[in-house]
């Protein structure tokens, strides 16, 4: 996503845990045409780092036009075995840090008539096996930012909220987890990233990528038994 913004000539601040990787991405962004490409290493599982990232961006850029929240913590692709601490930690990374960063950036986005872009998942619309902790965080995102969308609209806020529902995307980490477990098709990360950017820029409230993810969310309500059958038989599992 940062590379797409760079090609558009944006001023960018990126964050992740590994500083060396961030430095490499920032250098490539500059070579692709970014006006600025800054980075700050941060751990979204900490209490203070989410605020620190937004404060850094505001200080270095002087304000924000877009805040794109796309980070997730690692979670095993397996049946849940009762690890409460992992669920608690993942909720902190995948949900609470989003809420914290959004609140910190809201005043600046209000001034710039900016956009808040939340990257969620089809698993935040319909539950699936092997990802109970992850899907719970995405349901939380959809619930919170869906409610915030209404509240900002009712207050006549200048800030738009876009919630992006993605299917299986062919990132290295996702492909490694599902290899040999499911036949669900994966879609290109580069196209998903561009669709996310366009959705935020055009201030659309929702994105479904690929398109059939929207149909699947509707089928859950229209044909629940059939949908459950499809979900449970999309995976290779022997008890």
Automatic annotation (TrEMBL):
MF GO annotations: oxidoreductase activity
Pfam families: adh_short (PF00106)
PANTHER family: HYDROXYSTEROID (11-BETA) DEHYDROGENASE 1-LIKE B-RELATED
Family the UniProt entry places it in: Belongs to the short-chain dehydrogenases/reductases (SDR) family.
Protein name as it appears in the record: Hydroxysteroid 11-beta-dehydrogenase 1-like protein
Native organism: Lates japonicus
